[in-house]
Amino acid sequence: MAQEETPAEVEVPKKKGKLLIIILIVVGVIVLVGGGIAAWLLTTAPDKSKQAHGEEGAAEEHDDEHPPIYEKLEQFTVNLADQESYLQTEIQLVVADVKVQEKIKARMPEVRDAMIRLLSSKTAEELSQPDGKDKLAGDIRHELNSVLGIKKDSEGVKKVLFGALIIQ
Questions:
Q1: Bridge partner residues of 88 (DSSP)
Q2: How far apart are CA 90 and CA 32, in angstroms?
Q3: Tens digit of pLDDT for each residue in 133-157?
Q4: Does residue 59 register a pLDDT over 50?
Q5: What is the b/e burial string over 57-70, where b = at least 16 CB atoms within 10 angstroms of the residue's CB?
Q6: Cα-based torsion angle of the residue sequence 96, 102, 104, 105 in order, rounded to the nearest 10 degrees
Q7: What pLDDT score was predicted for residue 16?
Q8: CA gap 75, 92 in Å, rounded
């Protein structure tokens, strides 16, 4: 009887050991395959996004060739057209290239005059509208491009950014 109990006890640990080894091998294979798929997806994702975007992806690449060029204007404080309030603002411009930046610096008295005239023609009510600041930014961009003699917006001042805009 002692002999019958011994083989039964010996067989049970062997089955558990084999089962444990098989489970570890399966888990290892799953981890390796999953890691390989993840690495493949991470390395091929940028190529697929460029193909999906087509020309938009190429345009974004072209814009990223050089960092944006900023030109900071002096702070403006003007009385608004309603004569009851005033506007204080700091403006930065995103320009197309260094040539436009140099034109702005060379014509700074004209730029300041155009800015003061434009800003003082606005009312507090206009600027307080939900799209008032966006309209003001568009007006500034259009006015500065005309002062600089630039007909296409993409070749002159591309964007107007407000560092501060206080209406009192």
A1: 77, 166
A2: 56
A3: 999 999 999 999 999 998 887 788 9
A4: no
A5: eeeeeeeeeeeeee
A6: 150
A7: 72
A8: 10
Strand residues in 12-132 grouped as ranges (E): 69-72, 76-79, 86-95
Q: How far apart are CA 133 and CA 159, in angstroms?
A: 13
Q: What is the C-alpha to C-alpha distance for residues 39 and 163, in angstroms, rounded to an integer? A: 42
Residue 68 DSSP symbol: -
pLDDT mean across residues, the chain: 81
The distance of Cα 30 from the centroid of its chain, to the nearest Å, equals 38
What pLDDT, in 10s, does the model give residues 87-101?
999 999 999 889 999
Residues in CB range of 135: below 8 A, 6 or more apart = 126, 129
Query: Whole-prediction pTM value?
Result: 0.60
CB count within 10 Å of CB 26 equals 10
CB 95 within 8 A of CB 158: yes
State both tokens at 41.
């997806």
The model's pLDDT over 39-54, given as tens digits with 9 standing for 90+, comes to 888 887 555 445 545 4
CB atoms within 10 A of CB 93: 22
CA distance 10 to 52: 62
Single-letter code of the amino acid located at 124: A
